[in-house]
Structure formats: C-alpha cells, structure tokens
Amino acid sequence: MVFPSLRRIVPDGSWRARRSLSSLTVTREGSWPTAVRCVAATAGSPAASVALLVSAPGHSDGLGTLRAMPSSPVLSLRPSLLSALVAVCLAVSFVVATGGAATATEDGAGEAVTSVEILPLRGGFIDPPVVAQIRDVIDLAERDGSDLVVLQYTSGGGVSADLDDLLRTMEASPVPIAALIGPLGTGAEAVGAAGLLWLAADVRAVSADASVGPLDPADLTDIGGDYPIATRTQAFLTAAGAELAIADRLLTEAVPAEDLVEAGVVTLTAQGLEPLLVELDGVTVGDTQLMIRPAEVEVRFHSLGLVRRLLHAATTAPFIYLLLVVGLGMLLFEVFQPGFGVAGLAGIITAAIGIFGLTVLPVTWWAVALVVLGLLLYALDTAIAGFGPVTLVATAAFVVGSANFYAAPALDLPWWLIGATTVTALVFFVFIMTSLLRAQAGPEGVTVDDLVGRPGIVRSVLNPEGHVYIDGALWRARWTGDTKRAKVGTPVRVHGVDGAVVLVEPFDPSASAPPAPQTNGAVGVGSEADPSSAEPRH
To answer: How far apart are CA 202 and CA 64, in angstroms?
Structure first.
C-alpha cells in the first residue's frame, strides 16, 4: 500500500485525507494553498502504478508532475524511497506555490471541494430516533458549510414522529437535501411519513424498483386521521411542478417509479448512492448549481448511535411483542427460583424495552392485558402442576391478545409468529417448568424437616440462595455461613428450615467421619479379653 507510507511523512493535525471516488487527496489546512494528489491505478493489474501530482490554485491539472512509478518489489521493500520522492514532491510544490501566488490571486480560489453528508437508513419506521438523527445531520451540514445532504432509505411509515417539525427543519435548511428511495434490488418503499419526507426534499430520486405511497396515514399512531396529509401532499406536488392528478394515487396506493417519473414528481433516477452523486453533477437546486466531480468530492457517512439504534429497533412490531413476552417469561421463571439471578435481571431489561415500544407504537391495551393474563395463568398452571382448564384459558387469552395486539392493521402480527410463540410458552411453562419443579421437590415422602442434620453439596452458587444436592435430590437452600456466598461443590450441612428452603452451613466431612476399624486383630495394650469367649476348663 502506498497511502500508509504517505501518512508517515504527513504530520497529524496539519493535513487532512479526503477519499473520493477515484483518488485520495491530501490537503493542508493552512495558509499554503497547494495540494498533493495521489491517484492509484486499478489495484491488482500488471500496470498498477502510483502518480504524484502537484497542483497550485488555479491550475487543477497540475503544474508539476512526477512520472508514474511502476509498482514493484523494490518499491514495496523500500518505503523510504517513496518517502523521499514525496518529500521532493512537497518541496517542489512549495516552490510552485510561492511562484504562483500572483496567479492564484488573479485566477481566484483553488479548485473547490464538494462536501456531501450521507445518512443511509436500513428499513424500519420514521420514528423519534430517526427524526433526531436526520435533524442532527442537517444541522451539522449547515454548521460545517456542506454542499449537500443525502438521505437514502426504505421505510414502511412513521410512528410517533413530530413530522411537521422535521418538515420545517428541511424547508429552512440552506443546504440542499436529496432523498433517494433505494437502492436497486431491495424493493424499496416510502410509505406514510417516509413518502412525505421524500416529496419535501429538494431532489427526489428513486431506484427503478422503488415505490412511494400510500401516504395515508402519515403516522401509524394517528388512528383518527387528524393529520392533514392530503393538504401537505398537494402543496409539495405544486412546489415540485408535478401533475396534481397523481395525488389521489399517492394517498391510497403504492405508486411505482415509472408512474412517478411520468407525473413529473421525480427529479432523477439512480440505482444507488454513487450513481446518484454522478447524476447530481450540474443539477440546479433553487439558485444553486451542484458541482459534484468524482475526483473532488468529500463524503461523510452518518448512522444512528448505539442508544438510538436500540430505540429504533424498539419500534419494530414483532420485536416489541417478543421482547414483552420473553421479558415477562424470564421474570416469572425467577419467581420459582431461589434468589434473584441473571434471568431476572435480563427479564427486567427486556421487558423495559418492550414497554417503551408499547408507548411508541399504537397498541390495543385490552389485548396487551390478555397476553399478560395468559402468561400469569401459565405460571399458575406450573405452580399447581396441572394440565387442564387453567391451561386452556391461558392459551385462549394469549392467542386472542396476540391477534389483536396492535391497533393499526399495518402492524398486525403474522399468524405463524403468534402460533410459534404460543406453543413455546405452553411447552416452557406446562412441561419444562413443571418437570423442573418436580425435580426440585425431592423424593416422594421426604419433607424438608427430614433433611435437618443431613450433608449435601452446593450445585448452584448460594448468594445467599441457590440449590444443594442432598441424598440424590435437588433442594432450594439458603447459605448462613460467615462468607458472602458458597461456591459450587462446597460441602454443606442442613441445620434448619425456613418454609420450603433449607438452611445450610459449612461442613467438613473428614472432621465428622467415624474412626477407622481395627484390621490386624491384635488386642490393644491394656485391653482385657472377653471372659465369655474363653473355653471352660474340665
């Protein structure tokens, strides 16, 4: 690689590397307006070479050029040779820049670099985390003086988003905004709020297999239809100079890309981000003409942060449903276990994320209550170790609640997911948990009171509660020793009971073992013979 060698001789902090579509440009951010450009030929080809060009302001083609150097083992083994050549290049560029100062003054500033901010979104809804990220990117572009903001996404609509506030931010932005529904091959769509944002963009781009609409409802939480989506759609179509007849179709159906092009809604078609940047060169937005040349474009990609990514995932309908069910299931599992372990902590976190999702997505609360009731009845069935009417009622409540979980038809859970979740909950509570509790109950006819004084072995860490193995059975136990906890394998002895839990303390098996029996048959010193064993004399 050549670029690492270049970085060795370029001081950090005084230079900036720009990766473009065909070159890496290193520009000094100081008063010295000279650039050194490294252009690499096709990697892996026999004629691969590296050219160093020195350019001064007003001379984009380069005033001084070093002949291309073929890539060879000598070059790869002697990075110092390349460093020396680049050092010479920098020295020459300094002389050229000094001598060409007058030319730079006459011809104006040097070759402009186009800065583009790109935010690709991979599916999901236009929700509060996504809206916040879009607003942050627009603010950053305005603050840094960027030339363009590109939003690439496919989305099934908006949920709980302040749509009008985002539209006002886009309208007030001095930086042009392009929205691409794509890329090609994904069947990208822009439904509801996503389609309205696309209409509001300065540049509206689509891939060949994309579609826009239906736009109504703009927000899935707008069950009453209070948002003026029709008025907003008409206004954006008028501003774009498109045919207003397409408005009704956009509100009620998914309009394919070719129909949008015919109606004059689409600014340009592009199958991905790189083709979009190429097509945008020379496009006029308002009073600004975009100049995007492949050799001089600076691109910065943005993405949702970790917290926003988690919150964004929490607006996926099936994901929220599963988080709630799994979280409550783990908490109910902890009810039947001694102490509070990892499963309980994971259950709290999982259920909390699920509850957050319930506040974002439109849910039917009576259906949510039925799902929770079904899980509670499954737990009751586990406690009584039965399989009968309680099991049937629990299953019916769980299925009915799952089928009506969301208030918006677009969010309805698929039946295969409802069936798989119901069967999993039934098997876990009725069969697995019941068998586990029976194993923990110990042998038939043995109570915890019978275990006082019996030794055992710790099977799960007592902190202070866990399980111990006594006489071939697993029992719930609480540690009462001087240390904070007892590790697995620690010998213990039962010294008391507390309900269904045995109280254990440290136990040393060797200290309480009986003395070894005599094996040599000799009579000990000072011992007396048994008189009954002597034969009578005659």
So the answer is: 40
Give the 3-state secondary structure of residue 236: helix
Using alpha carbons, select from 22, 60, 113 the residue that is nearest to residue 295.
22
At residue 294, the pLDDT reads 67
Averaged pLDDT score across all residues of the chain: 74
Phi, then psi, of 318 in degrees rounded to 5:
-65, -35
Torsion of CA 70, 72, 74, 77, to 10 degrees: 120
- The gap from C-alpha 108 to its chain's centroid, in whole angstroms, comes to 47
450 phi and psi angles, rounded to 5 deg: -75, -10
Phi-psi region of 402 (alpha: psi -120 to 50; beta: other; left: phi over 0): alpha
CA angle at 46 for the pair 43 and 51, rounded to the nearest 5°: 60
- Rounded to an integer, what distance in angstroms lies between the CA atom of residue 192 and that of residue 126? 9
Which candidate, 251, 171, 178, 182, places its Cα nearest to that of 218?
Answer: 251
Distance, in Å, from the CA atom of 155 to the CA atom of 188, rounded to the nearest integer, reads 8
Q: Is the peptide bond before 515 cis (omega within 30 degrees of 0)?
A: no
Query: Is pLDDT above 70 for 211?
Result: yes
| 222 within 8 A of 229, measured Cβ to Cβ | no
Q: Please state, in angstroms and as integers, the Cα–Cα distance from residue 165 to each residue in 142, 151, 161, 354, 523, following that order.
A: 17, 17, 9, 27, 103
Cα-based distances in Å from 145 to 28, 204, 233, 280, 535:
18, 22, 30, 18, 121
The model carries a pTM of 0.59
Peptide bond into 183 cis (omega under 30): yes
DSSP H helical ranges for 201-316 = 229-240, 247-252, 257-262, 273-280, 306-313
Number of other CB atoms surrounding residue 141 within 10 Å: 23
Grouping H, G, I as helix, E, B as strand and the rest as coil, residue 11 is coil
In the block, residue with structure tokens 């979740």: 421
Buried b (16+ CB within 10 A) or exposed e, 433-469: bbeeeeebbbeeeeebeebeebbbebbbbbebbbbbe
- Say which amino acid occupies 73: P
What is the structure's pLDDT at 165? 92
Q: Which residue has the higher pLDDT, 386 or 428?
A: 428
Nearest to 64 by CA among 31, 32, 99, 40: 99
